[in-house]
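TASK: fixed-backbone design
INPUT:
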């Protein structure tokens, strides 16, 4: 749950931005996350927790500045007064120079990710060589998969998870989910004693029925198609007809 329920964001028209460099960022995929879940329940004393960074794309320093203009009529009066914008209006527009990352910039994601990598490297965290989005520490028993600003953390010993969280808190506002109940839209139910993790989909069926307005059938159906009960022991002879190819 966001602390600020009602928010207004200024976004750059990313389709009009020409950035000469690469804008793609390596992130963990669903397979990597599920393998990480499996490794948690497979290792004694291992646990899982989540970390979410706030405003990850914002205020990242940019070497190449960008520029945009905004109609003064689109800016709320309280913002105009607070930032004294009226003297800056030229032919109905306010012109601005973008020096730090903001929403809509094509390069916002990769610049924020590169800065995160530099900051975490000072604390011993580096991406693994062959698995995109999977990070490890040089000496500590801790792994995490990273999708944008969502961390899925496997750790053995809470002090190591605290070390990662403290490293992130130096530069970011971060929130923790010590129970590891939610990661990248997946609901997780952990049982460390039984070494199991369930990934249910609460509300999925009800939402799908509402979306497609599917009427409740008169008779319950538990499969996509009709099912015939097999008659074990019956003698069934399957025949087929083969047709010779024509010349």
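OUTPUT:
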């Amino acid at each position: 749950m966001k602390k600020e329920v009602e928010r207004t964001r200024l976004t750059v028209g990313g389709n009009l931005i020409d950035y000469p460099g690469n804008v793609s960022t390596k992130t963990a995929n669903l397979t990597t996350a599920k393998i990480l879940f499996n490794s948690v329940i497979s290792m004694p004393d291992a646990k899982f927790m989540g970390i979410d960074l706030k405003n990850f794309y914002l205020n990242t320093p940019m070497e190449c500045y960008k520029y945009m203009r905004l109609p003064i009529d689109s800016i709320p009066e309280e913002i105009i007064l607070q930032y004294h914008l009226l003297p800056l209006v030229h032919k109905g527009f306010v012109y601005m120079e973008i020096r730090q990352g903001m929403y809509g910039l094509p390069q916002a994601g990769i610049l924020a990710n590169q800065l995160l990598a530099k900051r975490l490297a000072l604390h011993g965290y580096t991406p693994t060589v062959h698995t995109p989005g999977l990070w490890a520490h040089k000496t500590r028993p801790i792994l995490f998969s990273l999708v944008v600003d969502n961390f899925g953390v496997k750790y053995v010993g809470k002090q190591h998870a605290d070390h990662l969280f403290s490293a992130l808190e130096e530069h970011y506002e971060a929130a923790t989910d010590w129970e590891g109940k939610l990661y990248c839209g997946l609901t997780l139910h952990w049982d460390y004693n039984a070494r199991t993790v369930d990934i249910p989909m609460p509300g999925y069926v009800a939402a799908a029925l509402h979306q497609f307005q599917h009427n409740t059938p008169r008779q319950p159906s538990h499969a996509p198609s009709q099912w015939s009960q097999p008659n074990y022991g019956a003698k069934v002879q399957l025949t087929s007809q083969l047709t010779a190819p024509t010349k």
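COMMENT: The chain has two domains: 25-60+106-214, 61-100.
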